[in-house]
Design brief:
The protein has 288 residues and is mostly helical. The protein has 2 domains: 207 residues, Rhomboid-like fold (Up-down Bundle), CATH 1.20.1540.10; 58 residues, no CATH class. It is built from 12 helices and 4 strands, in the order αααβααααβαββαααα. The strands form 2 sheets. The protein has a two-stranded antiparallel ribbon with strand order 1-2. It has a two-stranded antiparallel ribbon with strand order 3-4.
Length: 288
Amino acid sequence: MSFFEQRYSGQNGGFSNMAKMFENATAVGVLIWANIIMFVLGMLFPALYEYLTLSLYALEHGRVWTLLTYSFMHGGFLHILCNMLGLYFMGRPVETWIGSGKFLILYFFGVLLGAAAWLLFELFMGDASMLGASAGVMAILSGFCIMYPPMPITFLLFFILPVRLMPMVMLKIIAAFEVFGLLMSLAGSAADIAYAAHLGGIAAGVIFVYLLRRGKIPSFGGMKVKFAKYVQKGKNVKRACEYKFKVNISPDDDTQIDSILEKINKKGFSSLTDEEREFLCRARQKRK
């Protein structure tokens, strides 16, 4: 083999490896890398913040793209670290449950609704700017807590203290904290946290799951990733359910168990009501 043939072959191998890398990419991974790259670029070229962060001034001057681009800019290492950790640990299971397409809809819906809530707040507070992925991460957090089974989870408070809570209880505590922070800001307390944007992200997650359970969220292609497929109405496709329930309880409950399992197979775990999830949880406890 000649030198040129070897070089050409090596390039093909490199292109093939790159293609495989992009084929196995996840939406969570792409978002994290995009945020890291933009954070580095912002450190190298500080002028980017003027054109990519969100403010009333920016919109008045036609920079409508800042409604999205603000979410890729961060104010410091701790800021981006906290957001990316939240995106990583909660985003991975959510993307597995609903797929990368719907995951991106949820994330950017949170970004946009967070921007709208913050802008409404700024109409009364004055001219400031906002940056950070917090609104999108809050939408993922909200969706995670609502779709997660009714079982307690353990998380690290301030990354140190282990706390065990039910997902919905955790979401309510976080929402209450954000409301309190927003009220304090309205009362004149100085704050560097965009509480209104966080609440907009939480609301986006609630709205998204509500629409998802009713089959109102469209799918779109683009990224080839491995994820559990949601079944759309009218399509005869099996879904790989993330949670498998095998119970051994009284015959009187067989009919209800069968109907719930059939619902999971057709529409996915997140389609269950709180009562149905609690019933499955009790069934599992009886089995132990």
